[in-house]
Known about the structure:
- By secondary structure, this protein is α/β, with parallel strands linked by helices.
- It folds into 3 domains: 3-153, no CATH class; 171-265 and 428-545, TIM Barrel; 286-402, no CATH class.
- Helices cover 54% and strands 9% of the residues.
- It contains 25 helices and 10 strands.
- A 7-stranded mixed beta sheet has the order 1-2-3-4-5-6-7. It has a 3-stranded mixed beta sheet with strand order 8-10-9.
- Strand 3 and strand 4 (244-249) form a beta hairpin.
- Helix 3 (54-74) packs antiparallel against helix 4 (81-95).
Amino acid sequence: MSERFSSRCREFFYKCIDLISFNSNIRDLTDMLNRKAGHSEEFTADLLSHPGGFTRAFRKRRMGMAESYIRIAQDLDRNNVQERLHALKILMQLSFHAKTVSMPLNTARVQTEIMKEAVKNLHDRRRQMEMIADFSLVSYGHEAVIRRFLRELKRVEVPENGRTLREMDMGWDSHVHDNLSAGRKTPSQLILDAFIKGLSRVTLAYYDLPHRDIIYESMKAGRILGTDVSVAIEFSVGSRSQRRHFLFVPPTKDYQSYLDFFNRNCKKLSPFVDGLEENRKRRKKVISEILDNFNGTYRITLNQGYGEDSIFALKPLLFEDLERIVPHGQYSRNHLSELLYSRLKEKLRRRVMALKVQYTVASQQIREDAVSEWEMERIAELYRNTRNFYTRMTPADIAQTYFSGKDITDYDSAFLSEEDLMPELKKTGGTIVFARPLERGLKGAVSTVIANHAFIDKIEVMNMHDSMERDPSEISLLTRFVYLINNGGVEEIRQFLEDWYREEYDENLMRRAFEKYHQDALIPLAASASTGWVPRVPGMGFIRESSIPPKSRKYFTRTHYRLPRPVSALIAGKGRGISEKNTRTFTAWGKAGISNPIPWEMKKVLSASVSRVYGGI
């Protein structure tokens, strides 16, 4: 039996299953959804009106939610802020349409995620029909059904007390990225994901002074969804091989106060803004060099066997191509990966189709002895390899294969040292966060904190994007250091430095850091630095166990990763003493916990009742 005949049999078999499993209404809605996704620019989501009765209104509500999400997710143009926010508002109004359900907030979150999954699976029709059928079940808002879907979707249940997520103070993430920095999703889409995950507050990080449209969209989206949104500026200090990363978080919570803050502190922030602009130019130069290197090396290998003018050949990637997909010039390697992925995917699709025809013809010719077995094996192997490359390729794989090697191609920061800019930043009243502290190892993290204690307010003891590549013992030791600098004695700090730092240090500087943080604690943070590009890294969101409603707590804690107990305790205690209650924090990325192999004195203050933090919720 030929492969072609087998494929047709499988296709016919699956169609029969679909006909039996889903009614004509579900199939029609799926077709309509795919048409909408293919022509998203031709519609604008609007409020529903349903004089035709409940059935018609229900059908229109599903399509209205789908249209709104398509607009939020696919309309990436930087000038379409108002359209995305309008779609987000309509999406929320439609998801809260049923007023009689006993779990309105959880029902809205589940409905939104189901419709999101239906839009994401445009190339899996059966999965789409399953999602639309599930949406019908969820729309009635029965508690048992909603809780079942929350478990299946691995989402935390939020209390139904009439309050917004912001007011509940549940989950959080102190460092995330959207597509206007290094991420994959629009600001509205990212905040919508935070709503689905049950996050009360998030901090969006950008590599440059955000355009006012960025600030407006992110903070307005937070108001629509009831999530507290902060906008931070991520900057680096030092030479290319020794750069330290920080976040500057202005003390503002809404769009107008953000603008007022920068207008009020224009003079103080001028060197900072100039340095950010210079770093943007240097990033642009590095990206150009990476593009030139790719076009002159990897592209030639990828095009091997195909002429330069062939429809199967990958054309050179130009910087102008990147500028068309990157708003406001905040280029990153992730954007390079997305550009190459979209171009290469189309070329591979054409190659697979051509090789499939060649393979089919060769299969017929070998029976007629028109080709040799060696030629047949070569054609079959080329077809299989190309098809596997096409079906399994992801933007993350592209980044790892073609655009890695930070130490080889990078840039020196315009800020030579922390003293060049941090004193003026501190005078504005903003907060300075030490991001990715372990990027230069434990010694680098400790020396940076001690040397810059007058400026650094918070530290990411857990940064998921960075920590997944770290030895867990480094995280434990960093946590121990933060605990000791906030709460320990001078002798304990000195002993720690002798055991683990093992280099000469300024005793007076260490004592000043000790005194400063004993008065105003160095606040430990849990952050994901999520970009949405790397599947193996847990997504955004952290939550304390005590914030999870008792009815769903046991299942949630069993199916999500937990932070190490010392890390959880330190974060819950905001760097100070450890509470015996309600201090466990969870991440939402899987089942097993991160090991903590190092026993140390901090464990003496921990008990079995101490609550954990979970991440990737």
